[in-house]
Amino acid sequence: MDTVSLQSRRIVSGMRPTGQLHLGHYHGVLKNWIKLQHEFDCFFFVADWHALTTHYEDSQIIEESVWEMVIDWIAAGIEPSAVSLFLQSKVPEHAELHLLLSMITPVSWLERVPTYKDQQEKLKEKDLATYGFLGYPLLQSADILIYRAGQVPVGEDQLSHVELTREVARRFNHIYGREKDFEEKAEAAIKKMGKKNAKLYSNLRKAYTEQGDADALETARELLKGQQNLALGDSERLFGYLEGGGKVILPEPQALLTPASKMPGLDGQKMSKSYGNTISLREPEQAIAEKIKKMPTDTNRVRRTDPGDPDKCPVWQLHEVYSDDAQKQWVQEGCRTAGIGCLDCKGPLIDSVCAELKPIRQRAEDLSAHPEDVRRIIEDGNEAAREVARDTLDEVRAAMGLSYK
Ligand code: TRP
Ligand code: SF4
Questions:
Q1: Is the entire prediction scored with pTM above 0.85?
Q2: Can you give the residue range of the structural domain that contains 103?
Q3: Which numbered ligand comes closest to the C-alpha of 345?
Q4: Percentage of the chain exceeding pLDDT 70
């Protein structure tokens, strides 16, 4: 595959190591990663620096969570042979790119990212008026741009960070993508595509630059992605030339919105450590059963003989995740007619959650028994990531005039 389509098939995503993973992470993020791992060239990493921006005073939790999180990922079904798994702080190129991007990023862009104020409000007990926390989304931009990823799987709450990444990339390309004789070089690159494609490219480019035909722009991009014989530099020029600018050194990534998880916490709110309503991926069966048995139900159903309303019950939300149609029917009818009790209703859920977590817990135990294997997986991933990251950084340094000989 040529370099450009390789890049657009590249996916980057990170997770902050701030505690044990639970079913919310599994249904919300990990299952999606597991699906993507065979469809894309995936770079998944432990965002330990990002965790430090909010947990700088209790960094011990980060230290404890890093390896456990990798174990949970693999236990849940991430295949180390199919993806690159690595640790952010072991790829210092992220930090250098973050620094370089900080030179061109207006402070106001960072201040207006919604998570900046939101998180400060939400985590009032922490002092998040730090330089590091303001830079959180820019560090994330560096994480993404250093791999020139095409797509970034994120939840709704992170969309503004991908948007910032796009703006920063655009500004970078605008400032540093200029080169002497850009047009001549671009025209020469067009010829390298062969007569037919060269003509097609030129016509599409014209349709976009002169008439603003967005479809033509898309078609031209697809055409470029299919060009096996173009050198990376030429390809970057031709992508840039389409929009009239200079070279595209840092391509703008797309957000790949992760479908919102339906997985509720034990109290019906979102499952989250801070609400104390989680079932962890390694929860023992005994504890799973106890937690589910203790779940609140429809508060109007006081006695066993009172009919209830599943729509007012967090247990029903779990059935929505775990039960097939027949079982859901059984709950609806049994609840509304008082035909079943709440403990009856919870029984099959205990079974389903136990069945889901059993192989995960087992694999996690096996991995924990061989920490050196986990270390090696991450070392390999760090190396693979650094190789890509170094290439990008070389180009970035050159574009900024920093490749002194
Ligand atoms: N900020 C992300 C979160 O809290 C984690 C993250 C860090 C990330 N760097 C990233 C996600 C790069 C995607 C790409 O979930
Ligand atoms: Fe909730 Fe099930 Fe009890 Fe109805 S029977 S109130 S759905 S736990």
A1: yes
A2: 6-177+253-261+371-399
A3: 2
A4: 98
